Structure formats: C-alpha cells, structure tokens
Protein 1
Amino acid sequence: MKQSRSLSEKPRHAAVSCLVRRSLKTSSLIMALTLMAGCASPGFTLFHLEPAQGDAVAVVLADGAVTVTAGYLDTGEQTGYLTERGYEPLGNSLRSIPLMTYLFKVQNRSTEPLTVDPAGMRVSTGFGEMLRPYNYAHFYLALPQGSGREKALQGLKDVIYERPVQVDPNGTMEKLLMFRRPEVVGEEVAILVNGLYLGGRGVEGVLAFRAVDLSR
C-alpha cells in the first residue's frame, strides 16, 4: 500500500503537485486545501474517484501510531456494502440522495485512546468548494417517506460516522463517511483528515484522490 503523507512533510505524489509549488510547510490543512481548490482544473460532473497513486489511499500519522485509509464508493458500491451487512432498507433508501461516500477506516496502534470526531472532516472538491460531512440530522430530513424509513434510520447510526467515537488502543474502526455529492469536481479531490485526537492531541493529514471523467 502506498501512503500519502501528512502536510508536516513534503508531499510527493501527483495529486498534490499543485500544492508542492506553494511551499507546504504549514500545519494549516484548511489553507492547503483552499490552495488546491484554486489550482486550474477542468470540471467533471459525471465522475469516479480513484487513489491518486497506487492501489489505496492512506495516510500514516502521529509517528506511525495512527493509520487512516479511505475508499470512494459509488452508489452501487454503497448499496452493496450496506446490503451485505444487513442494512438493505437503508441501502435502498440512500439511493435517492446524491452522496459522496467514503469507506473510512482508522487504525490506532498506540497505547492511548483515539477520538474520531467526524465534524472536523472536510472534502476539498478541487473546484472551489469545501464540504462538511452529513450527520443523522441531515438524513432524518433527507430520507424519503415510506414503510422502510424507520428501519433505515435505525441502521444509520451503526454504519456512518455521525458523532465523536473512540477507537481503543490497538483497535480499528471502519464506517462510512458521507458528504453531499457536489455538482462539479476538479481533477484533484481530497479529504481533510481532521478531528482526530490521540490522548487529547490533534492529529491531521490529507487523503488524495484523482477524479476520473465518466462522461467520455
């Protein structure tokens, strides 16, 4: 697995090449992603997201104590993931909501608890927009009415990051991180990994993706 690096180090792969040109030795990830969004890029309205480099998107943080990986799921993959885990009503209900969904996995190899607060996560669309993750309240309003609504809502809290959760020492957590699907993305899309606290200390990094134009 090839690994992205936190912005405290000099990034190497092409997905952040625009950032490299702007001297990235700063702890402000929000500033860095704002710069990324400002780089010239064509806009894609029909797209899929792939790792910017290699077979997976991962970042190792806190001197190797924390590893975060993310995979983009399109609508069919999202439905399949939920159905396989016994959440078919939820999977079917979510198909009506335009979402940008990631399978987001956090590994804590330290001896201290790790807190994951999804409210701190952001997605840079690479086209001038910064997205905040959806939580339970968003879906309560957005899920369509019908016989499967209540069962879908019951399963929602089990499968998405929607409030702060703790990952025990030497533990792993894997859930879905969901955002509103943007109308347009640029060539470079990134998750701002923020809202992680290891023993009370903030941990942050970037997960970089490459947008593939599906309209051709």
Protein 2
Amino acid sequence: MNSSLTEQARCLTHRVASLTGDPAMERRHEELMEWAEAELGMDREYAEQMYALAEEEQLPPVYALLLVHCGIGVQELEEPEQDADEAAHQAAPPEWVETERVELEDVAMERRLRTTFRRFRGQMESAGTPAAAVAAFLAETDVGPVRLR
C-alpha cells in the first residue's frame, strides 16, 4: 500500500487501537454478532459467515469483522491472459454432469477473504501487538482498499 493512509487504512488503525482493553475482544459469539450489527452496521447473516471463515483461518473473529467493515485486504493480482491452448479447453463440465452452481463472485470473494484473513493472522503472530500487526499488514504492497462485502 502506498505511504499515504487511505480512509480504509485509517478506519482499521483506529478500530484496532480502540479494541485495546475493550470487552469486544472477549465477547461470546452472540455478543460479538450483536456488536457487529450495532457498531459496524453489518448484516447478521454476513457477520456469521465472516465469523465462521475467521475461525477456519484461525484469526480472532473480531479482527475479521473489522477488516471487512473497513474494506481493507489483499488485492488480487490481475488475471493472466489466456493463450490459444487454454482458450480451446472446455471451461465447464458437459451438460450431462450435474453440478451445484456457484456464483463466480462468491468464489472470488471467499478467496479474497481467506487470503486477507491468513495474511493478517500471520502479521498478528509475528508482530507482537495488534497495532504492530496492522502497521505491518498495511505496509504490504498488495494490501489496500478492497470490496469485502
């Protein structure tokens, strides 16, 4: 991310700093969901999904909710262009194979969220404090404003 702090980066920095000693860190699942709805303006169903993803990625859910709320994460690299051989391959299974339809946007969003949560967790493990983790996370070149909801 560039040296100037964006609105999203300021949001994350401020929100994480305000958590120090905040009971939000120790809240039970239900209380955290109510906090996400009331304080972060997050839809309950989406907050539940973020909570579940955060637990799978071993990130304290409060940080996942803040990353999503502030809209900061790992930015996707541009997709490589297909060469002629790749373009000739069939992208979808034949019609006779029954598959459950998944929206591409949902898959891409989940990948972006998981990548963001893993990267932030790594910073939390190595930085020592949440504030230092935020600073290290924001200093990464592929971290910046992203749409996470």
Protein 3
Amino acid sequence: MRFMATFLLLSLLSVRDPLWAQEAGSSAAEHLQPLDKIVGAWEYKGQDKEGVEFVGRETVRWAFNRTALKGEGSWKNAKDELSDYEFFVVWNPMSKQVEMRGFTSNGGGFSRTGVIDPKSGVWTSWHAGWMEDGKPLQGIVQIVFSEDAKSFQWNAKEGTLDGAPWPLLDLTFTKIGPTNHPMHLLLGDWEMTDPMGVTTPFSSWLSKDGKSCFSVANGSFFSVSYADAKNQNAAEGYFKSFEDDGYLVSHTKTAAAGGYEVAVTAYKPDGTTEKLRGVFEPIPAGYKYTIDDTQVYQLRRK
C-alpha cells in the first residue's frame, strides 16, 4: 500500500490550469510579459549579511488568463527555521506598477510595488512586510536575470526591521525544471509518516529533460510522467518495490476543498486492477494526503 500512497501523492501534484487559462487576453498580460522568464521551477540559495545561509525551492506559473503570476515555495535556513509561502504578481493599471502580495506559513506577509526596466529587464520593487511577531520589515528588492534566463539574482538592500538596520538577503535562483512543472513540490528530501505512525525517508528528483519525477521511499522506486503532453491532468507511473512491480495510471482534478484529489487505477502484474481515491492538502512545513478517507500520510521537509 505504501507504493500506492506515494504514487497518489505524485499524481496529485500533476494538476494544471485549464487550457483557456494559458491564453493572453488583456493589457495586464502585456505589461507582465517581461516576467515570462520567471515562470518555472527554481531552487535557490544564499545568505544574509550576517552569514546565515538560506536554501529553498519555488515555482511560478501564469494564472487568470495571464493577467497574474502565481508563485509558491519553501525555504530553510542554517538555524533549521522553515517557512512555506505563496504570492501573486499583478499589473496595477491605477499606479501603473507591478505589484506582489504574499503570505508565509509562520504568520508573516509582504507586498512589493515597483517597475520593470524596459531595456535591462531588471525588476526593482519596494518591499514592505511584517514578521510573525508583527515587526515591520522594509527594503528594496531587485531581480536581475542572466542572459539565458536560466538563473537570476535576488538582491535586497537598505533593509530595516522595526526601524533598525536589517541584513536582507542575497539569493541566487537556478531553474531546475521546465515551465510550470507541477511536481516541483515534492523535490528534495522529506520524512513520510504512514497511518501506523512509522516515519521513513522520502526523496524526489527530476529527470534531466524535466519530463519525469523519480522518487525513492522505504525501499521502493517510483517514476511518474505525463500520459499525454496535451492533457497534463493525466499521468502515468511505474513503480518497483521489494514486493511488487507494475504500472499505474491516474487522472487528477481540483478538489472542492481547495487542495487536489486524484483517482488512480493500478494495473498489477497478475492482471487484476485496484482503484483508489486520494486527497492532497498543504499543512505547515509539509503536506497531508488521505487515501479512501481513512489512511492519512504526512510529508514534512527535513
């Protein structure tokens, strides 16, 4: 059952916006077009001026008929502090500026308002936010892309925390997957706790071409890729464990509760099939997925 649970989780992450949401259709889309290069799956690392190291992963995709960009990610610092975050980027026709609004899992939040230089493509914003304890954090943030758009620098300066100088971050982002790859959330090392309370390691990584996601958990190997490039709500997977091996096919859709749900059909080597239903939803510093309303698994980042 563990391999089935893992494939359910991988499949739940293959949900995408419908095709109509990929088509441009407004002046907002035109103003945001220079940020098309930020769309994709990224990993980043860097440190603040005090030498505290940060690592994280982030994905950005088009939303709302290309009138907005939606991003989500997570980071961890050398102090083992963790945070998940989500944000939207929009064009404000009243102020004629690019605006960002975001929130973090530890109770913080932020907004950025700025402009994109039409010649250099550099995005400069004024950052204003708050920490989980309510202290205000401010500063200037610049995003500078490499010529091949496979990386960018995230530089913050002139920062203050509650009115006192604050060493904001300098980060380097590197693209790790193709545009809008839906399985970025599982990349990296995790701890998976099963319904019996047993916790085991769980690791995932992308293939070099970015089309498949590979995972290893509790002595089992998994591979998940799209069944059809034109229908990215469908995914195929292969698993091999100490006990069984075979093929799985799934179809995903958005769940009413705001997470994702998936129906999986397992084709076993003996010719029989098994059908399962799973629901995936975020929790602080990780994810929870429930199989057939009874079995609950949790993933938490190491």
Protein 4
Amino acid sequence: MSSANAARMVFNGGTIIITPTNLSAASPYGGTVLGSCKENILRRTERSFVVSCPADFGAGQPVERIRLGTAWAMTASFRTWDNDQVSTLFPLTATGSSGLKYVAELGSTYAGDKGTARAVKVLYAPDNPKAHPAILFLSAIPVLADDAEIKLDYIDEMMLPGVFLALPASSGNSVQMGLLEDLTL
C-alpha cells in the first residue's frame, strides 16, 4: 500500500469527445470535440434488492442483498454554443442562415423518440492522458439534463447541462475507466 501523499491528488481536467476511432492518435482521437465544458461528473448508480426475514423470524432483518446491476452516466456543463454540441444534445435541430445550428423544438419533442437511435461513443479525455484516468462509454445516449436550466442573464455564464447515459455494449460492459493507453474501442 502506498503512503498518503497530497502531491498525488488528481485534478482531472479534460475534454468530451464523441465518436473516437483511434485512441493511439493525437487528440481528438479521430472523433469530434464537443466544445468547452466544466463540472464533468461520472455517476454510478447500483440497483439492488434486499431480502428480509419473515416477520416471525426476525421481523424484517436483512439476510441477503441481490445485485441487480449498475447504471452509469456522465454529466457536463457545456460552456459554448457550437454545431456539434447542439446537434448532439438536442434531438431536433436545424441550420440557420448564419450556418449555425438552432434548436427547432416547438413545445416538446414527439412521443416515442428512441434515444438509442442517437447513441454515440463518448470519451472523456484527460488533459494529461499519461497520468490521469480517461473514461470511455462504448455506447451512450446524449441528452440535455431532464431538469435543465439555462441561464440567460449578464451575471451567470450560460451553460448547456448535458448527460450521457451509458448503454451496455455487446461485450456486456458499459464503461471503461483507466489510462487512455489501456482502454479499447
């Protein structure tokens, strides 16, 4: 076991890249950078079921925990408004006369929209890939956060809160985390 060393604390700034094709290449690894972002968070949620004793043998004391699986999501606050980012996060966009994408949702998106049709590979590439962990979702659904609030004023920075929901890959894995050179597409 290594000794405690505050100098080894990790501050893992990086970039979110979609559709990477070659992790041995230089950044953006054959993919597309989704603008500037901050507040990147990887979230793991484990689902389980607790089996309890019947009332006459211990009144609800837990006797087993059955693991039902995990769900992974990565969130990011995007600080820019660019075509790749907007068309990735929003299901309905159009290109304006300026050449930039705009959101073309009137009311709500249509019912029955399948997120898997827009799934992409997502790579969180650290600024220092030789020392800090990268995160790779082999397939993820990109969406705007369910409770998205986009600031529109002079005081706060306008940010688009994006979420990438990991899907299980054919290998059964949904996420890889480690040094970039150890991950595989």
